[in-house]
Amino acid sequence: xxxxxxxxxxxxxxxxxxxxxxxxxxxxxxxxxxxxxxxxxxxxxxxxxxxxxxxxxxxxxxxxxxxxxxxxxxxxxxxxxxxxxxxxxxxxxxxxxxxxxxxxxxxxxxxxxxxxxxxxxxxxxxxxxxxxxxxxxxxxxxxxxxxxxxxxxxxxxxxxxxxxxxxxxxxxxxxxxxxxxxxxxxxxxxxxxxxxxxxxxxxxxxxxxxxxxxxxxxxxxxxxxxxxxxxxxxxxxxxxxxxxxxxxxxxxxxxxxxxxxxxxxxxxxxxxxxxxxxxxxxxxxxxxxxxxxxxxxxxxxxxxxxxxxxxxxxxxxxxxxxxxxxxxxxxxxx
Amino acid sequence: xxxxxxxxxxxxxxxxxxxxxxxxxxxxxxxxxxxxxxxxxxxxxxxxxxxxxxxxxxxxxxxxxxxxxxxxxxxxxxxxxxxxxxxxxxxxxxxxxxxxxxxxxxxxxxxxxxxxxxxxxxxxxxxxxxxxxxxxxxxxxxxxxxxxxxxxxxxxxxxxxxxxxxxxxxxxxxxxxxxxxxxxxxxxxxxxxxxxxxxxxxxxxxxxxxxxxxxxxxxxxxxxxxxxxxxxxxxxxxxxxxxxxxxxxxxxxxxxxxxxxxxxxxxxxxxxxxxxxxxxxxxxxxxxxxxxxxxxxxxxxxxxxxxxxxxxxxxxxxxxxxxxxxxxxxxxxxxxxxxxxxxxxxxxxxxxxxxxxxxxxxxxxxxxxxxxxxxxxxxxxxxxxxxxxxxxxxxxxxxxxxxxxxxxxxxxxxxxxxxxxxxxxxxxxxxxxxxxxxxxxxxxxxxxxxxxxxxxxxxxxxxxxxxxxxxxxxxxxx
Lengths: 334, 478
Description:
The complex is a heterodimer.
Chain A: H1 3-35, H2 40-50, H3 54-71, H4 73-82, H5 84-106, H6 110-137, H7 154-157, H8 160-184, H9 188-218, H10 221-224, H11 226-248, H12 252-274, E1 277-279, E2 288-289, H13 290-293, H14 297-324
Antiparallel strand pairs in A: 1-2
Chain B: H1 7-46, H2 49-83, H3 85-119, H4 126-155, E1 160-162, E2 169-171, H5 174-178, H6 181-211, H7 216-251, H8 253-259, E3 272-279, E4 284-291, H9 294-300, H10 310-325, H11 335-362, H12 374-383, H13 386-400, E5 405-407, E6 411-412, H14 413-416, H15 423-454, H16 473-476
Antiparallel strand pairs in B: 1-2, 3-4, 5-6
Helix pairs in contact in B: 1-2, 1-4, 1-6, 1-13, 1-15, 2-3, 2-15, 3-4, 4-6, 6-7, 6-12, 6-13, 7-8, 7-11, 11-12, 11-13
């Protein structure tokens, strides 16, 4: 494995971390439109917190996918074709959600508006759940042939770990979204988001225990890399506790950081466990490795240069847009 | 009948359906960003509130198109991996970098600045606010360059070598990939096509409202701006199309011969067939209406020169590729589709130019009689849809003319498919996509129509914070 290959493996993880952190709270806010908001005004208030940002946040997923295609074409090809129906469902979720923002603004009847508010909720629930399933499906051994084709069975895609994984990611994003709402709103939703999170955090603790147990049973994470896996799991718990503590102390920024770091740690856990593979085969000889899944050194070099120039520029205006909309969205009741 | 539903056909159908649907919104959005940016800049320069109203109003329609364009674009990125995994493996070393650059450079820019543009009307000074929409436009345009550089490689591979171990393409010269001559005739053609689309769509939609004598000054100005953008763009698009033709005659003689419906090499000088009856089975043209000299003129810009027919092109392709791909390859492209698509595109383009010239003439400052020319307003209204058909027709020529390759001369469509994908999966996803697109397309058109009806003075609930009573009287007034 070359340094460049390692760098791009890490960069793909970084892009997914960006996506989990940023689109994580977007999804969470989408879920909160039904789980937290009590009426149309509150829903509008919640959606206004992500209105200017959700599209840019989603670009992190597009970039992660594009960068994966560019740096590890064999991984991209095997992953997306192998989990065909799951990726299709992610797309359906993202489509339903993506059009809802604009369409709801144009709807003229209460019914029409409610349709697009519902597609926002369903899409915001569907996308993280299925993505959680995919990410926990690829850390278990899969039937992969010599050419790298993944013939994933239903059991490979839907099993205890993938369902718990899907629930865990969805739950974590909901908590993250509620923390974002606490930071970005005023009034009743702000206090209720805190109260809801104070309850949900206990579900998260339970979820983490089950998740860690299933990791032990269904993956080789604890046997192949016991030290780092153990450390990341401990960190997951620590940052969950930090989130809990900051919810109790009503420190909103710290809560958001806590839940965000937990989401990032999920990605780190998966990439750490995969390393040096990108796809794990039941027949170990057919596992797809970083070493032979990547593009040529020339392509990786060009992409490194391009990223070094473009990413800081993109980050600069990306962050600027958050500073422009730093104010809280007030509640209708005043 | 069931035999026809094989994986390859279903996957090709899915690619055609998803890209054609996506490409209704891409050129429209790119062009609408430009038109909106021009309107807002006129507001900044002339300080006339009406131009701001225009930018806001047409911006609403732009945002609708952008939303559908974004979500259908996601499908494209996933689709290469999902349905065409062996293509992705083959092309990854070339395709990946432009796609990643497109995301980093273009997608971040358009998505961030569109958020800024939407929500800062009251907060930014007019010039700064106008800059936001220009960045959106820049992002959309840059995005076209990068995705087309991947497409150009598929049409005319440059800057690569074949990896001897894997048999896949390997990048050797990134400069050559970006400077691909195919790209620099294709990109301007596509981008001017995009500006054309928005120009005529704006003019056409505004013309409908003028027929109803609604907001006459506002829509009259909109018609003029739309037609000016449209006329400049359609002329440029045709010019660039001509350059592209010059390139294709040499590079892909089969595609060119098919667009002209020529089986046997032509005489010298070559006549141009306006219409043709084509017998694809016996490789014969059974009837046509010809214009002498014109094909020589179009092909070589002079009054002589024969053009190679498909039969000759076929022989040459067999001679060139039989060693690697075998004797059984069929190199004949879907000739009828190419022949008629080309005529729809070229004829449609000329028709658009004519409409623009007439519209601008009748609305000239000295003697403005546009409102009296109801026939012309009506024609313009119907013309709203034409650029969308032209865009699709153009892509039919380019992409179906690539048959039987995904990457010209290197990799076939049949080899590109995912070995794991089943017909059942494809049938299911095709049906769901079709239903989804029908709803999205229908809703989008409905909302555009409603927006037009409400007119420039209606304040839509764009900012989510100001929800209006859905049962109020105003909500039901058309």
